[in-house]
Each structure stands twice: as C-alpha cells, then as structure tokens.
C-alpha cells in the first residue's frame, strides 16, 4: 500500500466526489459523512506519512510513483514528495478535513458544494506531489475551477464579481505559466537522450548543468533581446506571484476573501496561497537559477513592499475580512524575502512561513466567520465589547491575533525570525536595508490587529449584539487544531524544520547558493 | 541538611522548575478554572514554592560569593541544552539555536527578586482583586507574566531572552487591559481599552529595535549566547585596534532601543503611566520585578557589547529620563501616577548608572527598587482599596490612623526610595551617584555627558525625596478629605490646585476614552484615539477652573466613577454595591459602607510587611553589622561584580582594573573620594527634598499654590507631561495614518484601478473574441465544452454565461499557443 500512498492521498477525495454524486441531494447528512470520510482518510494517511514513514535524513524525493502517461508528448504520471512538499500536503489535508465541518452551516446546494470541495483537494494535493510539469499544470487548473464555483455560487453579495476576478486573474497567471512550460518542454526535448522532458527534477538537473538555455527553441537562446531563461523566469514568476499574491498582483485576493464563504476563505488563505510560494520553490527558481540570482534583489524588494504595504493597507480597512486578507498579503511577503536571501535560514524561514501562515490565517478567517455568522456584517466599527459576552471567542481570537502578529512562543515568530535573520545575513548587497525596512511591518501588523481587537472586543458593548451566544462546540473544534499548531510549532519548531532540513540543503545546492 | 554548594545535577532541575511552576499554574487555571475553586490559592502556593526555591538558590550564590568563588553556571554542566530551531544534534550549533539556562550572580539576584515580589503580588491580589468578574483569569495571567520574567532571567541567549521579553509584552497587554472586559468599572473600562494597546505598541517599537540588534549580532557573530557574545565583542574590538567598529555601536544602540521601550525611557516612556489602567497589583508587577526591570536587566547582560558612544547615549537618556519624570512626579495628584513617574525616574537612575560604567550599581538599584516600588504600589493599592477606589490624593488625608500598617510600610519604602541612610534605596542610589563621581573625578574619563548626568541625577534624587514625601503627607497626614462633599479640597489644596481638577490623570483619561468612543461610534479609524479630540478639553480644564470655580469639579468627577462622589449617581452606586459585597466577604468591614477608609485585610498587609522589611534590609543586611554600614559592601556588591558577571577576562577589558602600585593607589584614592562625595551629595539631596516637602505640605501649606502661580505656564507644561503624548499624536501617529490612507487610496484606485481597466478592456475584446471563437475555432471549443458539461450544473447556478466565453477564449488561446510552439 505504501508504494501508492501518495496517489491514495491525492485521489481519495475524488472517490468521495464520485460517491456524493450518487447520494440523493435531500440526504445531506450522508453527503457530509462521505465528505468527512473522504477528507479524513487522506489526512490520517498524510499524518502517518509525516510522522511514521517519511525519512528526514534524505533530501531526495520519496514515495515516488512514475509511469508513462501521455506518450505523445512524453508526459508522465510522476509524483513524489520531499521535505518541502510534505508539510504542505499535511496542512492541506488537515485544512480540507476541517473545511468540511466548518461548512456545516452552509445550506445551499450542499451536494454540489461538497463535491467541489473534494475536487479542490485533489487539485491542491496534486500540485504538491507532482514532479512532472504537465501533471503539475493539469492539477493547477483542476484546482482553479472548483474554487471559482465555490466563491461564485456560495459567496456573498458580490460573489460573481469576485469569482470572475479571481478566475481571470489566476487564469492569466496560468497562461503565462503554460507558455513557459511549453517552451521548457521543447527545449528539454532537444536534449539528447531525454526520456522525460516534462520532469521537474530533470529540468533542475539540466539547468544546473547549464543545458537549459533555450538553444533548442526556434528562436534560439534569446528573444527580443532577452535571454530565454529570463523570459521563462518572469513568466513562471508572475504566474506564481499572482497566486501568492504579492503586490501589485494582489487585488483579487481581498475581493475573493470578502465574498467567499468562511471555509473557502480558510482554505484559500490557508493553502491556496501557499501554492504560489511552493510553485516558486519547486518549479520556478531551481529551473532558471541564473535568472533567479540575477533578479533576487528585485524579489526581495517586492517581498518587502508586500510586507510593509500590505500591513499599512490592512490598517486602513474597516471590513474585518478585508483586513485579514491584507494581512495575508503582508505575511506572504516574508516568503519572498526569505527566498530572495538565498541563505539556509532565509529559505527555511520562507518554508516555515508558508506553513505557519496557513495555520494562523485559518484561525483568523474562522474568527471572522464566527462573528459574520451572527451579525451578518463585518464592519470593524460596528462591534465593540464582544469580550463581555463571548469570552471564549475573545480568548481564541487573542491567541490567533498574537500568532499572526508574530509573538514569540507562537508559530509565526519562528518563521519571521528565521526569515529576517536569514535575510539579514544574506550575501546579496542591499538585503540588510530591505530587512531594516521590513521591520516596520512588524509594528504596523501589531497595530492593525490590536486596533481591530479594540474595536471588536473591547470598549462599550453594542446593545444590538448583547444576546449573542459564545462560540459553539463546532466552531471551537474547527479552530482548535490550528491554534494547537500555532502554539506547538511555536514552542517546538523542529517538528517542521527537521523534516525540511535535508531537502532545503539539497535545494540550496541545486540553486548554487 | 541542605548544602549551600551549587550542585548542577539537581539545582538545574530546580531552576527549570522555577518557571515551570507558574506555567503549569497558568495552564491549570485556564483550562480547569471552573473545577478549580481555589485556583487563586493554588497559584499563590505555587509562587510561594517559587519564592523559596529562588531564595534558596540565590543563597547558594551568596554563599559562593562570600567564600570567594565565582558563581557562574550554565546548564550544559548538567547536560541540559535544547536545540530549538532544529532538534538537538541534527545541525551544527552555529546554524541552530541552542537554549540553556544561565545562572550567574545577576540572574540569581534577579530571580530571587522576581520570586519574592511575585509571591507578594499574588498574595496581595487574593485580597485586592477578590470579587472581580475576571478574578481567575487575572490570576492565570499574572502567573504567566511571572513565568515570562523568570524565563527571561534564566535565558542564556539573546533570542531566548527576546522570546520571553515579547511574551511579557503580550501578558502586560492582557493585564493592563484587564478592565477592558469589565463594563462594571466604567472609567477603567474606557481607559484600559486603549491603554493596553498603547503599552504593547509603544514597547513593540523598542522590541523591533532590539530585534534589529539581534540581526546585526547574529550576522556578525553567528551566536547569540551571552558568554560567546562577550568574548566575540572583545575579540572584534581587539582586532579593530581597540576601537568599537561602527556596526557594533549600531547594534548596541538597537539593543538599547529595546531597553528604552521596555524600561520606559524617554521618549518611549509614554506607555507606563497609562499602564495604571490595569489593577494595582499589575502595576506593582510591571513597575517592580517584571517588564521595566527586563530592560535594565538586558543592559546588564549586554554591557560588554556597548561601545563608549552607546554608553554616552545611555547616560544621557537615563539621566534625562530621571530628571524629567521626577519633575512630572511633583505635579501629580493621582496616587498611582506619582508612583508611575517615580518608576520612570528611578529607571532613569539605573540606566544612567549603566551608562556611567556602574553596571553593578544599576543592577543593584534595580534590585532594591523592585522591593520598595512593589511595596509602594501595593501600599497604594491598599490605600485605594481602603478608600473605596479613590485614587486622588486630594480626597485622602489623615489615613495614617485608619490604615496604620499600610502607612508604616509605605513610609518605610518612601524613606528607601528617597535614599535615607540605612534603608535599601540608600545603598543603591549611593552607588549610582558614586559611579558618576568616579567617572568625573578621574581626568581621563571625565566628559560633559557624565557631569550633566551627575547633576541631573542629583537633582532628580532631591525631587524624588520631595514628591514621595508630598505623597505621604497628602495621603496620610492632615484631615481625611474624602467625606467633604461640598468642599472636597482643603484650603491648602485648593490654593495649590490652581488649575482645578486634575487633568493629568482621570479627567484627561476620561476624555481620552470619550474621544475614542466617539471615533468608534462614527466609524472613523483615526489615530487620535487618545489624542487630539481632547486637546481643547485640556485647555479648557486647565484654564477654565479659575473662572468657573468648583463647577468644574463635577465634571472632573466623571473619571472617578468608582468612588461614589460624582454627581452622576447610577454608575457609582453599582460600584458601591460591588464593593460592599466585597467587604462583607472580607468580614467585619460592613460598617465601612459610609466611605470610611479602613485597613486592608491581613492577606494584603502581610504582603506589604514582607516587602516593607525588604525596603529596610533589601539593600544591606545591616542589622548584622550596624557599625559597618558605610564601609562594608552591601550583599549585592559582594555577589555581583564585573568579574563575577562577565568573567575576569571580559571584566578587565570592559572595566579595567588599575595595574601598578601608583595606579592602584590612585584608583583607591579616587574611589574613596567618589564614595565620600556620593555619600555627602545623596544625603544632602535627600535631606533637602524631605525638608522641602515638610515645609510645603505640613508647615506652610500655602507655599505650593504660590509657586504654581509664579511658574504659570511652565507649571502647566510639566503638569501636562511636557505635552509628549500630544507630540507623539501629532507627529508619529498622524504620519502613520496619513501613510495608511495614502496607501489604501493607491491600492483602491491605482493598483485595483489598473486591474479593473484591463478587465473592462478585455470585456470589450471578449465580445469580438466570442464571435471569432464561434466562427473560426469551434473545434477548439468543443474540447472545452466537454469539460463544461461536467460543470454544467454548477455553471447554471452562477446565472451568467459570460464566464464561459472568457474561459473558453483563454484556454483555447493557450492551447493554440501551445500547439504552435510544439509544431513550430
């Protein structure tokens, strides 16, 4: 069984989706049960993989499955994981699993909803395990469609606008990516004896050997005065950057978040954004390392702009969810900054930040969901004094806020500290200045979170809301695992770093850093 | 019989138990508080154990010191080290963060201080906070607060210190904000709501600077362990020809930035007075053993890395803070505000001492200050509790007969803080002044900054003695003024209080709150949550009194919602019922309903007495050798010297001992002279201050009023805390909000505007594209249509057909491009 473990993890939700189609739409309880099982089993399998089967000592791919798939273009079904993808696979199975009970409040067309949720999980995990660029792209697109419907159908009042904006924006990124992939495929195809021209590890190897220069393309190594690798780098980078999203490609995110139902926001912020960062680490930078080194400083600048700008714009928001969305933009800036540094700590910090932001953002969006379910609005200025009537809600929110503002002892701090320390010791000129600018974001992040805390929870209680009940057990249980992770990984970060270590070393070696 | 020799194998386990106990207490209290009816007592008991452990272990340090051994232990001796970022042993130490416990003389002294003070605060809180709505949460939080400080003291490395440092910031946020969840105390409710945020954000500015300092040090040294940092600094300076490199100076300044934030130094001191929005025991914790002490402790840990330039900055900032806060302290009427400004001032002493090279003096003052300031705050709490939550000294008076124990303890600690010989504060303050003299008496080390510092500190010491005795006389002497409903201010005070109701404290905060409330109501996200809106109010309050007479008092009384004298009856009544119940529970206090002040219950006064004793003996166990009081080294100086702190090598580098007979003689001569001068100066300033207080507040009570009238605007400026809050509002906060709204505008109009424009353009093209699509490349669409069927049901729910066209066009286009590239 373990030799096909990754396939099982990836495709089990698809079986769930199939089963859900056969359930009469009136039997929502059965739909939910199937959804729970179909997401629960992958989560358990991923947990087993993480804590039992995975070897921390090697940076090589593990649990590899590789068979020919589309022989015409030499695409393969090639999957495997390493220390960079495993934590994210585990996080995504957890998020999707929690996403099911978090969705129990949804009334509209439940059958379709859960079916799409299952499909979404297939897409996400597929991306994380794919080692073949064609397969990667297919999963990437598979993920896009359910997300579009989940926002567009079950979203808020402006859901259509948000869904179309999300879809088109990310599709634009996908198209750029596809062009780059095709170009890479052609170039790889020209290399003598190449059996798997779509294979990402092969691309990395050839790139490292200096063979992936576009020599086999009709126009040779340069196009419009720019090198092939530079073209590929920017096409892929923008494709992934839209997903992250980083400034200035971020404006789809607040709209999508504001309109998406709570569980979808949680999944969107918790794992979908990480696909962008993961894509850069897996399928962009190591394929064109020379271009990466050339533009590393630019990436650092973009990262810092995201951190500081995102935090400031978040401070200016009056919509709770928009504020949290901008905090995501700010937090994901650390990923870019850490990667640009090209140091072990910087890279580890970036990888940690992806995971840890996944947990803290999940908490924050669940927090917003709790109050939105009751008040049906998210105006930060419309609340006040909620801690008096919802003490549990306040306590969990406080913990979530502290995790998000990078309080030591909670997960966010480890990632931020490693990123910033790693970036500061980077050999890249100018990085130190960038780090010094980025710390402004730390203060502003604290400011907008505490300002929101004050407006929502402290002060005078708005009598309109005096009758509100505290969090229900279901809401508590949905937040608990993420808060637990925030605390546990803040105190024991080595549960993540030990798993990542060997792969990051290998990755750094591939990058020539 | 337990030996007093330090045994790493067992004692490090005890040391780990020290922070573990309050941590476990916190977890139990949070998760089981409903099933744990005596959680408060359990936690206090836990703190008692902690106190015993810390004192016992500290005694071992003292024992070693008196035996002439160096007491310096790291947990690696007992094999206790933990890899943090990666698990132990998987990566080289230079790529990991290895944590251990450092137990040295400074740590031993500080740990014992934290243990004792924290226990007293816990004990006191049982009485003081009793009946509070969030009583159990309060105990949990204060335990975790203690945990953070204990962890900070035991940290062997800068990043671990930073972790606990920030954790303490978070706990102070929760504790200062204690009343922000309790609308039953309307005044504190409003105040705490923003004060906790202010405290956290202000200190976080300093924290970020410290964080940057950590970046620099990590980048250059690739270690953050204190012992290794000291050695590395020495090597670096040696390699640089004996000069500190510029980057190390910057690192030192950044680290000091952390101290400025946490230890409330100018200009980041603004959070500390507002931290009084929390319950009084919290103030005692923050002002004495935790939080503000952390900043000074950090300086003690990082002293060898501070370059001469940094030390000059430290000196000037410390001395300025000491003087400027002391001047404000003379003008406050709120009992706790006086103490808050005295804390800032005393912290200035400690910081300046470090800057003057007297790192031991600074640490010593931190230790004694922790005892007497905790006692003063808890005594103030006892007074406030006894006076039914009145804090204005103008409504007190004559309490010495009604609250004799509180009075005795407060008087002792006032003598201590004033620097009266034989009391704890005398020894340490004397050392601080001596450090200054030592520096300026020697021609080689003399500089203008040190002279300035010495003058400022001396003046501040005199002012300290003055305002502390002012506090004592206003509170405990004269007639009780709390019952004088018509003329609540005696002639003396009315004469002094030219500007009427105290805008410094309550009325001002009330306005703060109101201004903030207004912002909330209108949904304006403005910076001035405690700023501009009340600027005019202040002016009004300050100048209006002369014209409006007592009419303004009722207005001022808004702030005193809890004390029951306000004309706005409903809220105070509620408060009173609460207090009445509270006193009933205490037993025997029911007769005090009629506003009569009363002595606090035993559980509170015991805590006071413990700290009061330490206010006498905390500096010197002089009962054992009374004849030697001016000559023998106090215990702290025996325990902590530069050599025991940093090791001989580092100490001789950063505090060079004289070499050669002549030099030694010269040095001894200097030290003797400095000691004598310091003794004379500190005695004179303390005496002057006390004398002035006696003259002004007991003998000729009309004088203060005349002085105030004479000073006019200058007095108002001091009283308004030199308008620093207003200045910060008008500059930093205003700029922040300007930047915020500017960037928000950019985001909405430029970035998203561009996206929308592109979208509109595409929509326009899409119409043509759709036609093109239908007619020319229908074949490509068919493939997409297949996929569309699968999602058809879902698509229909969206109620729009447009997206299909876009999707089809985009995917179709991509497929075409791909086809072209492959075939080409």
Structure description:
The complex is a heterodimer of chains A (513) and B (824). Chain A has helices at 5-22, 28-53, 86-102, 110-129, 133-154, 159-189, 200-208, 228-243, 252-259, 262-283, 289-315, 320-341, 344-375, 386-389, 391-404, 411-424, 431-457, 473-491, 494-511; strands at 62-70, 75-81, 222-223, 226-227. Chain A is mostly helical and 513 residues long. Chain A has a domain at 294-513. Chain A is globular. The model of chain A has no long low-confidence stretch (mean pLDDT 89). A two-stranded antiparallel sheet of chain B has the order 1-4. Chain B is built from 34 helices and four strands. Chain B has helices spanning 8-32, 39-66, 105-128, 135-154, 158-176, 186-221, 226-239, 246-262, 271-274, 280-289, 292-302, 308-329, 335-355, 359-386, 399-402, 404-418, 424-441, 448-476, 491-496, 506-522, 535-548, 551-556, 570-586, 602-617, 635-639, 642-646, 648-654, 661-699, 703-711, 713-719, 724-775, 778-790, 792-798, 802-823; strands at residues 73-74, 82-83, 98-99, 102-103. Among the domains of chain B are: 307-385 and 395-480 and 601-623 and 641-719, no CATH class; 506-596, no CATH class; 741-823, no CATH class.
Characteristic terms for this protein:
heterodimer, A: 513 residues, mainly alpha, two-stranded antiparallel ribbon, 19 helices, 4 strands, B: 824 residues, two-stranded antiparallel sheet, 71% helix, 1% strand, globular
Structure in a nutshell:
The complex is a heterodimer of chains A (513) and B (824). Chain A is mainly α and 513 residues long.
């Amino acid at each position: 069984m373990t030799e096909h473990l990754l396939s099982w993890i990836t495709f089990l939700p698809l079986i769930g989706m199939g089963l859900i189609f056969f359930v009469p739409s009136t039997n929502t309880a059965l739909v939910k049960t199937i959804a729970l099982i179909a997401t629960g089993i992958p989560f358990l399998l991923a947990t087993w993989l993480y804590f039992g089967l995975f070897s921390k000592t090697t940076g090589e791919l593990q649990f590899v499955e590789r068979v020919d798939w589309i022989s015409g273009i030499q695409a393969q079904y090639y999957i495997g994981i390493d220390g960079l993808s495993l934590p994210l696979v585990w996080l995504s199975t957890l998020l999707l699993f929690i996403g099911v009970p978090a969705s129990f409040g949804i009334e509209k067309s439940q059958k379709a909803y859960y079916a799409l949720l299952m499909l979404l999980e297939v897409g996400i995990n597929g991306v994380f395990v794919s080692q073949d660029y064609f397969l990667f792209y297919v999963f990437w697109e598979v993920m896009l469609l359910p997300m579009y419907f989940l926002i567009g159908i079950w979203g808020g009042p402006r859901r259509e606008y948000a869904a179309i904006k999300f879809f088109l924006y990310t599709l634009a990124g996908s198209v750029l990516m596809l062009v780059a992939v095709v170009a890479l495929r052609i170039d790889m195809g020209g290399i003598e004896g190449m059996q798997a021209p779509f294979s990402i590890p092969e691309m990395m190897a050839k790139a490292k050997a200096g063979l992936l220069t576009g020599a086999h393309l009709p126009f040779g190594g340069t196009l419009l005065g720019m090198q092939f690798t530079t073209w590929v780098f920017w096409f892929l980078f923008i494709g992934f950057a839209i997903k992250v999203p980083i400034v200035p490609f971020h404006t789809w995110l607040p709209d999508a978040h504001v309109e998406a139902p709570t569980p979808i926001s949680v999944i969107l912020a918790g794992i979908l954004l990480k696909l962008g960062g993961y894509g850069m680490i897996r399928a962009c930078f190591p394929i064109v390392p020379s271009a990466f080194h050339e533009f590393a400083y630019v990436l650092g600048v973009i990262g810092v702009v995201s951190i500081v700008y995102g935090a400031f714009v978040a401070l200016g928001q009056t919509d709770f969810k928009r504020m949290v969305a901008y905090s995501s933009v700010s937090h994901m800036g650390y990923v870019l900054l850490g990667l640009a540094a090209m140091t072990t700590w910087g890279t580890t910090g970036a990888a940690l930040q992806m995971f840890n932001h996944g947990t803290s953002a999940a908490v924050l969006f669940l927090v917003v969901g709790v109050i939105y379910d009751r008040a049906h609005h998210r105006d930060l200025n419309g609340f006040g004094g909620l801690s008096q009537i919802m003490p549990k809600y306040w306590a969990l929110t406080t913990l979530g806020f502290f995790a998000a503002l990078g309080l030591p002892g909670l997960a966010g701090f480890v990632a931020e500290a490693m990123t910033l320390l790693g970036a500061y010791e980077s050999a890249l000129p100018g990085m130190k200045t960038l780090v010094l600018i980025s710390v402004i974001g730390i203060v502003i992040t604290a400011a907008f979170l505490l300002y929101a805390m004050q407006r929502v929870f402290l002060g005078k209680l708005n009598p309109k809301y005096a009758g509100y009940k505290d969090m229900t057990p279901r809401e508590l249980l949905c937040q608990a695992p993420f808060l637990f992770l925030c605390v546990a990984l803040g105190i024991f970060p080595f549960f993540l770093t030990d798993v990542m270590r060997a792969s990051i070393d290998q990755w750094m070696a591939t990058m020539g850093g | 019989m337990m030996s007093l020799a330090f045994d790493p194998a067992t004692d490090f386990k005890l040391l780990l138990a020290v922070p573990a106990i309050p941590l476990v207490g916190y977890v139990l209290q949070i998760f089981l508080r409903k099933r744990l009816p005596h959680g408060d007592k359990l936690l206090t008991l836990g703190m008692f154990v902690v106190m015993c452990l810390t004192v016992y272990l500290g005694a071992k340090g003292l024992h070693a010191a008196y035996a002439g051994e160096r007491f310096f232990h790291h947990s690696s001796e007992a094999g206790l080290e933990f890899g943090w970022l990666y698990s132990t042993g998987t990566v080289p130490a230079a790529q990991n963060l290895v944590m251990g416990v450092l137990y040295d003389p400074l740590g031993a002294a500080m740990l014992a201080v934290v243990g004792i003070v924290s226990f007293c605060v816990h004990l006191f809180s049982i009485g003081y906070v009793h009946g509070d709505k969030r009583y159990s949460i309060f105990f949990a939080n204060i335990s975790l607060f203690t945990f953070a400080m204990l962890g900070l003291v035991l940290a062997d490395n800068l990043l671990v210190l930073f972790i606990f440092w920030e954790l303490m910031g978070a706990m102070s946020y929760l504790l200062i904000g204690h009343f922000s969840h309790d609308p039953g105390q309307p005044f504190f409710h409003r105040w705490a709501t923003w004060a906790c945020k202010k405290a956290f954000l202000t200190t976080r500015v300093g924290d970020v600077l410290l964080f940057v300092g950590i970046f620099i040090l990590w980048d250059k040294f690739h270690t953050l362990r204190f012992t290794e940092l000291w050695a590395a600094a020495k090597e670096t300076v040696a390699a640089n020809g004996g000069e500190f490199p510029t980057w190390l100076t910057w690192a030192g300044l950044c680290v000091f930035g952390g101290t400025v934030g946490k230890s409330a130094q100018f200009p980041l001191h603004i959070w500390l007075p507002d931290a009084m929005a929390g319950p009084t025991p919290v103030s005692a914790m923050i002002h004495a053993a935790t939080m503000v002490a952390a900043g000074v402790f950090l300086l003690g840990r990082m002293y060898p890395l501070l370059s001469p330039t940094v030390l000059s900055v430290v000196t000037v900032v410390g001395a300025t803070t000491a003087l400027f806060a002391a001047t404000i302290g003379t003008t406050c009427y709120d009992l706790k505000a006086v103490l808050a400004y005295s804390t800032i001032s005393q912290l200035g002493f400690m910081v300046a001492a470090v800057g003057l090279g007297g790192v031991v003096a600074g640490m010593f003052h931190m230790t004694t200050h922790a005892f007497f300031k905790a006692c003063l705050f808890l005594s103030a709490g006892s007074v406030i509790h006894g006076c039914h939550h009145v804090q204005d000294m103008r409504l007190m008076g004559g309490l010495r007969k009604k609250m004799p124990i509180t009075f005795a303890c407060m008087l002792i600690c006032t003598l201590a803080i004033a620097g009266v010989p034989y009391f704890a504060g005398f020894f340490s303050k004397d050392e601080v002044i001596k450090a200054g003299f030592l520096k300026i008496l020697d021609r080689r080390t003399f500089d203008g900054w040190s002279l300035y510092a010495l003058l400022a500190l001396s003046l501040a010491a005199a002012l300290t003695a003055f305002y502390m005795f002012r506090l004592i006389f206003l509170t405990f002497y004269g007639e009780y003024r709390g019952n004088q409903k018509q003329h609540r201010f005696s002639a003396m005070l009315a004469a002094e209080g030219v500007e009427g109701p105290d805008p410094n404290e309550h009325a001002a905060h009330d306005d703060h709150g109101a201004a903030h409330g207004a912002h909330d109501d209108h949904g304006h996200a403005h910076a001035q949550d405690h700023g501009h809106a009340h600027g005019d109010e202040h002016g009004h309050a300050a100048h209006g009194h002369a014209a409006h007479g007592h009419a303004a008092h009722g207005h001022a009384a808004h702030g005193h919602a809890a004390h029951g004298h306000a004309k706005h009856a409903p809220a105070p009544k509620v408060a009173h019922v609460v207090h009445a119940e509270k006193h009933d529970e205490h037993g025997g206090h029911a007769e005090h309903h009629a506003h009569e002040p009363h002595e606090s219950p035993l559980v509170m006064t015991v805590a006071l007495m413990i700290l009061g004793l330490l206010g006498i003996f905390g500096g010197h166990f002089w009962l054992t050798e009374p004849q030697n009081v001016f000559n023998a080294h106090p215990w702290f100086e025996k325990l902590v010297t530069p050599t025991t702190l940093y090791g001989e090598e580092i100490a001789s580098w950063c505090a060079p001992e004289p070499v050669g007979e002549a030099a030694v003689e010269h040095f001894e001569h200097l030290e003797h002279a400095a000691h004598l001068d310091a003794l004379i100066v500190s005695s004179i300033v303390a005496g002057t201050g006390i004398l002035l207080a006696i003259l002004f507040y007991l003998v000729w009570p009309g004088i203060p009023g005349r002085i105030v009238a004479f000073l006019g605007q200058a007095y108002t400026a001091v009283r308004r805390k030199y308008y620093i809050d207003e200045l910060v509002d008008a500059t930093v906060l205003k700029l922040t909000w300007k930047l915020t709204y500017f960037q928000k505008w950019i985001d909405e109009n430029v970035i998203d505007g561009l996206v929308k424009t592109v979208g509109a353009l595409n929509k326009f093209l899409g119409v043509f594209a759709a036609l093109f699509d239908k007619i020319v490349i229908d074949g490509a669409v068919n493939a997409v249509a297949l996929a569309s069927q699968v999602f058809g049901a879902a698509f229909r729910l969206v109620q729009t057909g447009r997206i299909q066209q876009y999707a089809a066009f985009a995917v179709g286009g991509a497929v075409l491009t791909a086809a072209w590239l492959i075939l080409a």
